[in-house]
Specification:
With about 120 residues, the protein is of the alpha/beta class. It contains three helices and eight strands, in the order βαβαβββαβββ. It has a single domain, classed as 2,3-Dihydroxybiphenyl 1,2-Dioxygenase, domain 1 (Roll), CATH 3.10.180. The strands form two sheets. It has a four-stranded mixed beta sheet, covered by helices on one side. A four-stranded mixed beta sheet has the order 5-8-7-6, covered by helices on one side.
Length: about 120
């Protein structure tokens, strides 16, 4: 194995716009065009640097409340403030003392972990 190419999270049909407001407008990820063969399925492909998240439409959608991607960021405190101001309150976790991190749910309830970069 070489690396993880992307992480996919499920979204319900028609949730692309609410996801754009969170992932693109708030988290500042870039929306990447989906390959033509996949575009008709709905969803979004997002990227920020080497981090790629795909949001795929799932008919029987249930948010991932435990499983989650963990994303290292340069300004953890700044991101926490940005999320809190937008109504997405971070939950800090100090279970691993040497790693500063928090969890937050996207607007659909999917869990995301953000951690400080060493």
């Amino acid at each position: 194995m070489l690396r993880i190419d992307h992480v996919q999270l499920a979204i319900p049909a028609g949730a692309e716009e609410v996801c754009r407001r969170f992932y693109v407008d708030l988290l500042r990820m870039e929306e990447v065009a989906k390959p033509a063969a996949l575009a008709a399925r709905g969803g979004l492909c997002l990227r920020s640097g080497a981090v790629q998240i795909h949001l795929g439409v799932e008919v029987d959608f249930r948010p991932a409340r435990k499983a989650h991607p963990a994303i290292a960021v340069a300004d953890l405190d700044g991101l926490a403030r940005t999320l809190a101001r937008a109504g997405h309150e971070p939950t800090w976790d100090d279970a691993i003392p040497e790693i500063r991190r928090f969890y937050v749910a996207d607007p659909l309830g999917n869990r995301l972990e953000f951690m400080g970069s060493p």
